[in-house]
Every structure is written in C-alpha cells, then in structure tokens.
Design brief:
Blueprint: E1 5-8, H1 18-31, H2 38-42, H3 49-59, H4 66-84, H5 96-105, E2 109-113, H6 119-125, E3 134-136, H7 149-157, E4 165-169, H8 172-180, E5 184-188, E6 199-201, H9 209-217
Parallel strand pairs: 1-2, 1-4, 2-3, 4-5, 5-6
Helix pairs in contact: 1-4
The structure holds 6-O-phosphono-beta-D-glucopyranose and magnesium ion.
Length: 218
C-alpha cells in the first residue's frame, strides 16, 4: 500500500471548540459594551486569535491601544483555557479515533495542521496527542490560512510531498489553503459552506474505510 499524508485541522474537525471560543469572545465583547453573535462566531472559524480580535473590535466599532489589545488577547485566552481545562475524551467528534487508528494500522502519515496556539494542550486533554506523527500549529507559522504554510509544514514534518497529502478541514480558509497547497481537500461540515473542497462530509461517520483506501491508492 502507498504511504500518504493525512493532515487534520483541530478545531471543528477533531473537537468542537467553537462553542468555547464563542463564550470567551462574547464575554470580551460584552465587557467592551457591545454584543457578539453566533453568526459572527461562524466567521471566525480557522481565523487566528489576533485576526479574530481585530474583526471583533471592527464589528463593535471599537478601537483600543496596542497595550489594551494585548491585554484583551490574554484575557480571552485565559478564559478559553479555563474551558479547555475541563475537556476530556467525550468531546472528541464522532469516529475521529476510528479514522486515526485505521490510518496508523495502514502505515499512513498523520499530522496536525492547526491555527491554534493551544493545539497540543487540547490534544493532550482528549488523549489524542500520541496519534500524531507531527504537530504544526499556530506557534509554528507566520502566515494564516488561506496561506498554505501550515499544511506545507505539516507535510514536510512527516516527509510526504504536498501532492500526496489529504487535508480534513471545517473552515473555508482551511479548504482554500489545502487547495493552494496542491493537496486533496476534504471538507467536514456543510456543503453550502465548503463547496470549494474536493469532497465534503458532515462528519467522520460518513467516511468509509473503502473511501480512505481509495485516497491512499490514488
Ligand atoms: C482555529 C479556530 O483553529 O484556531 C479559531 O478555528 C481560533 O477560532 C484559532 O481563533 C486560534 O486559536 P487559539 O487557540 O490560538 O486562540
Ligand atoms: Mg477548524
């Protein structure tokens, strides 16, 4: 069997952390005197922490000093980490471990390609850290998705050429990054949102072992 690289986004693909990002950003917005909606939170999927805060401040028509900006970033992350701290294996999205184990059993490369600077902590909390051959996250990249940097690094970390990699992503920017990187993009989520992906599934329970074998042998 061939050896391909399977690159997983974290937030929204392996675990549903968007609800925790939402709570923390909403409280921050309220502390500044404006609201933050679930629809706005949707637009922050895959967006880095610093870009997220810039967008939220713009939505709230609010400008802050550089010092205040840094303080707000810390405040948000501290609250977010409080939620992360309570996470356990029950928060892993359906059939993710099954797919990870199938890939490992078939000698495939598995790496993480996430915008989050908290990726290792989250994988540790849900006991999935050991399933990855390499982890590339927000601490390792300078350019955010849709720039392909994170996925190109995730591929080179497992020594597999980009054209032999497959990316699982729940964000539009992430699907675009995978496409620009010349990788196969698999959208996890809604067809209406992720239509630029090569394949789209609602979740991993819809992804069969035969389909994964086809990807490997392509
Ligand atoms: C992405 C999330 O994976 O990581 C975004 O979809 C988040 O919502 C970004 O802002 C950065 O995460 P963190 O954990 O570094 O604040
Ligand atoms: Mg995501």
């Amino acid at each position: 069997m061939k050896r391909k690289g399977f690159i997983f986004d974290l937030d929204g693909v392996i675990v549903d952390t968007a609800k925790y990002h939402f709570l923390a950003w909403k409280n921050l917005a309220h502390s500044l005197g404006f609201d933050f909606t679930e629809a706005q939170n949707e637009q922050l999927k895959g967006v880095s922490r610093v870009d997220s805060l810039n967008k939220i401040l713009a939505w709230g028509n609010t400008r802050v000093s550089e010092d205040k900006f840094q303080a707000l970033m810390t405040l948000k992350n501290d609250e977010y980490l409080g939620y992360i701290d309570k996470m356990d294996d029950s928060e892993i999205l359906i059939d993710v471990p099954k797919v990870l184990d199938f890939l490992k059993a078939n000698n495939q490369g598995v790496s993480l390609g996430s915008a989050s600077k908290n990726a290792r902590k989250i994988l540790d909390k849900v006991h999935l850290l050991a399933k990855f051959d390499a982890i590339v996250d927000g601490n390792d990249v300078s350019k955010a998705k849709p720039d392909p940097e994170v996925f190109l690094n995730a591929a080179s970390a497992i020594k597999i050429k980009p054209e032999n990699c497959i990316v699982f992503e729940d964000s539009v920017a992430g699907v675009q990054a995978a496409n620009i990187a010349n990788m196969i993009s698999i959208g996890i989520g809604s067809k209406d949102v992720l239509h630029e992906a090569d394949y789209i599934f609602n979740d991993f329970s819809e992804i069969s072992e035969d389909f994964i074998k086809e990807l490997i042998n392509k």
